[in-house]
ATP-dependent DNA helicase
Amino acid sequence: MSAIHRALKEHFGFDRFRSQQQEDAVKAVLKGDRDVFVCMPTGAGKSLVYQLPALLSSGITLVISPLIALIQDQVEHLKALNVPARSINSKLPSAERRQILADLESESPRLKLLYITPEMVASPSFQPCLSSLCSRGLLAYLAVDEAHCVSQWGHDFRPDYLKLGDLRSRLRDVPCVALTATAPQRVQEDIERSLKLRSPLLFATPVFRKNLKYDVIFRDLLPEPYVHLLAFAKEALGGNTAEKGCGIVYCRTRESCEEVAHKLTKLGISAKPYHAGLKAGDRTESQADWMADKVPVIVATISFGMGVDKANVRFVVHWNVAKSLASYYQESGRAGRDGLPSSCRIYYSPKDRDQLGFLIRKEISRKQEKRGSQKEQDKAPIQDFEAMVAFCEQEGCRHATISQFFGNQKPNCAGACDFCRDPKLVRAQLARAAVLSTSTGTAQSAAPRGPFGFDPELYAGGRKGYGFERCDEEWGEEEEDPDKRKKEFGSLFKKQMNLRKGSAMANETFVPPDDDCVLKDAASQRIPRLTVKSREHCLSLLQECVSIHRGAAELSHSFEALDQAVEIEHEIFKASKSANLYKAAVLKRVSEMKRSAAEEKRCESAEASATCSSSSHTQHLDGFTSASQVYSLKRKRVGAGFRGSSSLFQTAGDLLNSQKETLTTEKEDEEEETGKTQEMKGTKTTPAGLSPIKAKTSSTSSLSSPSKRLTKKQQKLAEAAKDMRCISQYFGKKQVDAPQMKGGSVKSEPEEERSPHHSPSPDLTDFTTTDNTSMDVGSVSESGAAAHEDETGMDTELTAHPELQRANLKSDGQQKSPKQSREERAASPPAKRNRVMDSKRVTFDPTVQETQCGTMNGDAAAVSQKPATLKEAADIVVRCLDPFYKKGKFATKDLFKSFARFLSHLLTEGKTPNRGQVKTEAKRFIKGFFSRIQRCESEADWRHLKARDR
Ligand SMILES: Nc1ncnc2c1ncn2[C@@H]1O[C@H](COP(=O)(O)OP(=O)(O)OP(=O)(O)O)[C@@H](O)[C@H]1O
Ligand SMILES: [Zn+2]
């Protein structure tokens, strides 16, 4: 047995080298005549390449490592092996530091390995020690771990690593070993140059690891993502019978770490979260339990894993896409270090992609702003992220993509990735994701183009790929961003102050935004009671609209859409004084965008070209306005109920009347414009300067179009009022106790007949979300804009937000007490109220509307005989399907939407049924559909269905 092998066994307990490459590298370092460059994947055993020679040589090996945490890990590990290794760092107790320095200054130091950060090695306090070691010839080697940090092309670039060039100049005769996990040509060159390596011997392992199985699952396509994750984890861990293994789930935010860990545990597999938001004790406990195999799954941010060396990691899941392919390779590479088969999976979501892309670009601009200039290298993170996106969205071998990214040859995957195992499945998934993306506006990038114009060909010969991410919260306490610390302290201070002020204030404690919040001025508390969550929700509404508006056919668009949405949201945020006005403004903008998108679409569609050319709302002349369009298309009633004396909002009666109005002929429409049919409108806006007139008394007065009469401000307020109503419907707390309604009662409708308008189902045209997104639900009613709703969610009485009222009254030039306003409102439009209430039912069910409207204009039959447009059919279908959705008959909202879309097409394609027929057919079809299946789980459930199944 050679001395090297003996030492390997004696010091490290290994019988043999892990690979020929490891052995060769160790021998090359030991020889000491050349610098050595080690480029081996994670877990290949790079550390041994300098640790073993360090023990076999006289003198001390100086090891530069970027993170104190990493250093501590290594030192502990070596100490446990009885290897004399220590570290000098800012965290070291001074007594220990003195002890180490004393040893280093002694004639023959005991220490063999000294770990140190690049900052410390350059610090003046360390210089005397360094010079002393140097002059006495006591430095055996200089080892630079994570050497890619020296490259400005890497994400992990650390300016202090550049100082190592100077160090190297001072230690000319000391052989240098540079080590990195994965560094393509460009980074390798940077390292060589910066560390002044002299024609180093290169030991580079191909990145391909055949024991790792890669696959990508589009998360949004899953009905039950957590159940899916659970099944995967269980399978990867080999059930309960196999040897103990464990897994890592990486999440981008602390919140999702908590959520995923909780869900997994609830579903039956024990999982613990790990992130910087946890108390140090809890975090350590999570890690310790996982390391000790007490808890099989750890759900962590990317800060977890650095220096964590666990051989039996059977799976690594990325619940959110990684920042770059290099980081992904690094993070996923923590699986299967023991060489046994292990799985690496990404649960990919285009939404994640857009958010992360946005954050990356935001970070770049922040840096550019700070430095006041742009650099070529700024593109690197974007390009690296593109490669990550391409990895997920392309049709091709995942291993090949990784290998090519790092400049290696295409490996023989042999079924170790989903594409090589079953390309059809991957294609099908991509196709389904594409369908979904067109419906949600989150486009999947069409290969080969990527979010930033990525062309996969570019990567064929290898591209910049860097070491892994070190950008999480734990990126060296020494380097902590003082701004961040200040901000955190500020928010902590505020919280504490609030707590001291009493419980009322404490209840309203502002929840600061997450680090990765995309909002501008996210931490601003300028608007009372406006939560970050509310703002984020509004942002998502805007983003969706922008995406739809822009077509979002390409991935780049969806990035831009988010960008644009962030700007719009911020603009609104800056301009709003209260939470309600803010929300109203957001919804107003959303409905504007919706409207213009719809108009554009109508213009494009041949079917609707005639409609479009005449007027944006002529399509509703046949008596049915979709619930989602009630507001957006009623520009003529902008001022309804606007004046200070009356509700700013439309009552149920207004809405029904508005339905009636849409039934009027074009001639009547014109008359209405000139005020002849105004009795339908309830409270009207009067010519500027005149007192408001109640419907009762104003029924015969002549008015011109309110929109023409209103000042810009008034119009804005009226629009806001209108949108406020939407807000109260969609986000407002539902008032469980139905307030009594004067002039009649509103019956609770059978579920099927509820309007999607106030019981928001995911209407095809619905721009609000239907899931329980945590909008600041309380704020609307809390702040006084109480949208009282009956059981069905229908407004029975609406009180204007005080701010709206104030502004409104101001513009009116006269003040009224809220009480007075209420009285007037109660007394106002009796005709309207009676008509509505007499009908005893407030509903948007098309047939009911038809009947009512029919009696109003006396032509219901003709109306329902008119052929339905696709849009109308879709609205009807959504209404028919809505109860099923609510009963949980669809696994996801998107599935519901897809099915509605499918059915609408099916019912109208190649035929011209009238709306009555559409409804009957739709109901029959749906009934048949659900008689065959319990619950719709995927699109496959209806793909095979044809018209004959109806
Ligand atoms: N010859 C060997 N035989 C068995 N195990 C080995 C051998 N060499 C190293 N190892 C073990 O392999 C694991 C990974 O080694 P090491 O931490 O050096 O990897 P690395 O390449 O530095 O990874 P990273 O990039 O994460 O730092 C360690 O547990 C180490 O003890
Ligand atoms: Zn493959």
Summary: Residues 397-399, 413, 416-417, 419-420 surround zinc ion (ligand 2) (CB under 6 Å). The longest strand covers residues 212-218.
